[in-house]
Design a protein that fits this description.
- By secondary structure, this protein is of the alpha/beta class.
- The protein has 5 helices and 7 strands, in the order H-E-E-E-H-E-H-E-H-E-E-H.
- It is elongated and about 75 Å long.
Length: about 180
């Protein structure tokens, strides 16, 4: 009797697993396709609130190259990288937008003030832009050329100024 119950339980679990897999496959097949945000693609457009007030849109940089850096204050590699990006922004005149992912304004303001960040800070509170650019981990730095094409994508911390200049080489340096 016990073996019959075990056999029935096993069969029920097997059927449930197959049904769950089938539902998953159907949902993934019908899911809305994600924006690629891959090198060579047109950069997904966005409009976000700025920490300093007002709106900031990628279209504001039409005809110019721009660097996007996705970051958060809790991310140690971001904390190490942002001061270097800030110096590159000041020295090379590269247009740059630091996109904070998911944090509140007060936390971001304290961080920006502490490190005296000079570039525009955009607030991606709902993480919509993070999803558009398929950000899996922080920091992520992407370079967009004058035609609006994503030309470079660097996942992880930039640790040296020469790495930053190499990454941004080839885009317009006019702010």
């Amino acid at each position: 009797m016990l073996s019959i119950i075990r056999k029935g339980w096993f069969q029920a679990m097997l059927v449930a697993g197959v049904v769950a897999l089938a539902v998953y496959v159907v949902l993934q097949t019908n899911a809305e396709p994600r924006s690629k945000a891959a090198v060579g693609d047109t950069a997904p457009s966005f409009q976000l609130n700025q920490l300093a007030g007002g709106q900031l849109a990628l279209s504001d940089y039409e005809g110019k190259g721009v660097v996007l850096n996705f970051w958060a204050s809790w991310c140690n590699p971001c904390v190490n990288e942002l001061p270097l990006l800030n110096e590159a922004y000041k020295l090379a005149g590269i247009d740059m937008i630091a996109i904070n992912v998911g944090e509140d304004e007060e936390t971001v303001k304290k961080f920006v003030d502490r490190y005296e960040l000079a570039f525009p800070i955009a607030m991606d509170r709902e993480q919509d832009v993070k999803r558009q650019y398929r950000v899996a981990g922080l920091p992520l730095t992407v370079v967009i050329d004058e035609q609006g094409k994503l030309i470079k994508r660097h996942e992880g911390e930039l640790t040296d100024m020469s790495d930053i200049f190499a990454l941004t080489r080839g885009i317009s340096n006019e702010k």
